[in-house]
Amino acid sequence: MAQQAYMTETDNGGSDPERRGNRLRRLAGRAAAGWRGDRRIWTRGLVTAAVALLLSGVMAAHSHIPNAIGNLGSLTETFLPWFGLLIPVLLVIALVRRSATALIALVLPVSVWLNLFGGLLFDKTGTGGDLTVATHNVNADNADPEGTARAVSAAGADVLALEELKASAVPTYEKALEAKYPHHAVVGTVGLWSKYPVGDVRAVDIQLGWKRAMRATVATPAGPVAVYVAHLPSVRVKLEAGFTARQRDKSADALGEAIADEKLPRRILLGDLNGTMNDRSLTAITSQMRSPQGAVGDGFGFSWPASFPMARIDQILVDGVEPMTSWTLPSTGSDHLPIAARVKVDTTDS
């Protein structure tokens, strides 16, 4: 008598990846069928689409937002990268509302944001270079200046700038850094420490009435470099006054003039500028120097506040030298993060 074999289908039949793939295809098919059968996908979500277009306009035309009222333009430019966070929010709303119009409108802000900041999403760091520089706003109220000095010097910078130096804390920084940096100069609340000889030190007048900027010549093995250290006035966001930055803007113009008058062809600016590279009010400086972070850095390099960095207001800017890499250093006892960059001073073979 012939025996008949039976194939029994169980819950374990088939591979897990295949079952997951089938489930996803079924869900996608149901979603697509729902959209195809909905005649209102073009008329729903018009408000969401309008917000997407407005967002695109703000990002694309940020330089045209006037500063006449509360320095609104500069405030927008300071936090401009964060406007991109609105895009996924609008995307979720468009999907929940099943609005094809809103989804299509979102292509515009995505394109604008990527055009502005897409290059910062990739690691552009290089190798080489012959000079490492670093800068740090150490915070006048820093409870551990010695620990901060040790931490920032561990980065191995050849030239180190410190801002917001409290007079009573200067000896502590000098003692903590003297082993690595035999040459240094302090002018007012800013200071420069160097492994190489430092000369022609002088204060830079940034229209404040007290000294928060300096200039020095650092005799590197590859040639002399004019190094500027600056701490521009702080800005405040006030409900009744907006983004108060008038004194910062005035000081930025004065610093820009001083750098433009520099005789040495190689120039490096280190410091807390209380503004980002997008802020038009720093144009007197940024128009003649470039940021290693933007050119060869990895990511946005936000430096403030240290607890949750939201903006890069601490800057390293260069001219006449070639940036090779840029990075942000670990947190110290300050409310700012230190930043560093490596540059090539000898560009004769570039």
Automatic annotation (TrEMBL):
Residues 1-13 have a biased composition (Polar residues). Residues 1-21 are annotated as: Disordered. The chain crosses the membrane at residues 41-59, 79-96, 103-122. InterPro entries: Endo/exonu/phosph_ase_sf (IPR036691), Endo/exonuclease/phosphatase (IPR005135). GO terms for molecular function: endonuclease activity. Residues 134-336 form the Endonuclease/exonuclease/phosphatase domain. Gene3D superfamilies: Endonuclease/exonuclease/phosphatase (3.60.10.10). Keywords: Endonuclease, Hydrolase, Membrane, Nuclease, Transmembrane, Transmembrane helix. It comes from the Bacteria. This is Endonuclease/exonuclease/phosphatase family protein. It comes from Streptomyces parvulus.
